[in-house]
């Protein structure tokens, strides 16, 4: 709790260009919370997490800055929500180190994201990639978050956060709030347009597999036209037709419609018409976001002020928790 309000925290890694999957699974849901006066929201640009995979420094900087602008352009008001860069708040890696010493190898060994990412980056299986979930636990626990909205793939990391926090509390008393995960109803798992059995991912090598948030309308329409479906020829919502199911999921996540409503709307239509309708809907959803992004790009002073103010705000809350943790563990306080 902060000032009697519930605390919500989430974030994304600043790797590559964020996709429609990130938007529908995460960002779009966050915007709803930002309107709730009874919730204090923190959204991190998780740049420390990004370097678990080798990054080009110039690109990393550009991606992180772009992500901040996209957060704001998508509707997160930086005057109401705390939008910060993880690397601006030193308490994150400090708490992560401490929590590393309360986390077992066996627990980390079970993490499926580590297995997936180490298979993908076999030439760079570093210890940061292995302990990634501990840094994520620190991100969450520093702010005493009650609620953490994420896509389905992050639930395992949230469970481990709860386990670490519970273990720590059982040794030292009530230090951390035990966070709850929140997965949005629709859009929780948007699949690749080229292989609908795989999740849409910003690091996919095939650019046609993902819609990127700054793709123009022609590109969006072309990618949907090329989306892989099946040879059944009828629009249905079932696991045997993952491509069509994914298009319906995307449509519903954008419009807020239910599967029943959508199936009725598309009754008798062919796949071509379905793809066109979904493409139009997505392009219309992204258009205002893209316009706001362009405006923000030209507003350097405003963005710099937001960065400074919000990093100070995030640090204030994070340091408070870190001080408490250090005291409990038994470190000597620095004389003031
Ligand atoms: P990468 O490909 O680099 O691993 P990613 O696209 O999986 O990245 P993350 O930075 O790991 O993206 O995730 C940011 C947020 O977006 C998380 O909450 C995650 O659950 C959500 N998310 C990612 N991909 C999807 C998807 N295809 N559908 C729904 N939500 C997603
Ligand atoms: N691991 C997350 C990004 C992330 C995060 C967090 C999400 C880092 N720290 C804290 C929620 C809360 C991912 O989406 N890959």
Question: What does this protein structure show overall?
Answer:
The chain is mainly alpha-helical and 336 residues long. It has two domains: 207 residues, HUPs (Rossmann fold), CATH 3.40.50; 79 residues, Tyrosyl-Transfer RNA Synthetase (Orthogonal Bundle), CATH 1.10.240. The chain is built from 13 helices and five strands. Strands 1-2-3 form a three-stranded parallel sheet. A two-stranded parallel ribbon has the order 4-5. Strand 1, helix 1 and strand 2 form a beta-alpha-beta unit. Helix 4 packs parallel to helix 13 and helix 10 packs across helix 12. The radius of gyration is 21 Å and the shape is globular. The two termini are 27 Å apart. The model has no long low-confidence stretch (mean pLDDT 95). Adenosine-5'-triphosphate binds next to strand 1 and helix 1. The site of adenosine-5'-triphosphate has 22 residues, from strand 1 and helix 1.
């Amino acid at each position: 709790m902060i000032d009697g309000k519930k605390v919500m925290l989430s974030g994304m890694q600043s790797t590559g260009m964020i996709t429609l999957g990130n938007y529908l699974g995460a960002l779009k849901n966050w915007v709803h919370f930002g309107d709730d006066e009874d919730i204090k929201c923190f959204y991190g640009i998780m740049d420390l997490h990004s370097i678990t995979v080798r990054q080009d420094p110039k690109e990393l900087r550009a991606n992180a800055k772009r992500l901040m602008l996209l957060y704001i352009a998508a509707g997160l008001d930086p005057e109401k929500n705390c939008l910060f860069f993880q690397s601006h708040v030193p308490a994150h890696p400090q708490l992560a180190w401490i929590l590393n010493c309360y986390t077992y190898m066996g627990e980390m060994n079970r993490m499926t994201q580590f297995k997936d990412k180490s298979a993908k980056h076999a030439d760079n299986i570093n210890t940061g990639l292995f302990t990634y979930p501990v840094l994520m636990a620190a991100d969450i626990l520093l702010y005493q978050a009650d609620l953490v909205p994420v896509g389905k793939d992050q639930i395992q990391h949230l469970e481990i956060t709860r386990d670490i926090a519970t273990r720590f509390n059982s040794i030292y008393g009530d230090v951390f709030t035990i966070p709850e995960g929140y997965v949005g109803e629709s859009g929780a798992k948007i699949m690749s347009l080229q292989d609908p059995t795989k999740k849409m991912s910003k690091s996919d090598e095939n650019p046609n597999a993902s819609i990127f948030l700054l793709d123009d309308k022609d590109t969006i329409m072309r990618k949907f036209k090329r989306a892989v479906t099946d040879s059944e020829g009828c629009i249905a919502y079932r696991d045997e037709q993952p491509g069509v199911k994914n298009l319906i999921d995307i449509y519903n996540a954008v419009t807020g419609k239910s599967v029943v409503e959508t199936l009725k709307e598309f009754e008798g239509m062919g796949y071509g018409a379905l793809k066109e309708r979904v493409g139009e809907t997505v392009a219309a959803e992204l258009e205002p976001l893209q316009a706001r992004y362009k405006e923000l790009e030209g507003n350097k002073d405003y963005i710099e002020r937001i960065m400074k103010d919000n990093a100070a705000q995030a640090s204030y809350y994070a340091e408070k928790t870190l001080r408490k943790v250090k005291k409990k563990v038994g470190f000597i306080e620095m004389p003031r």
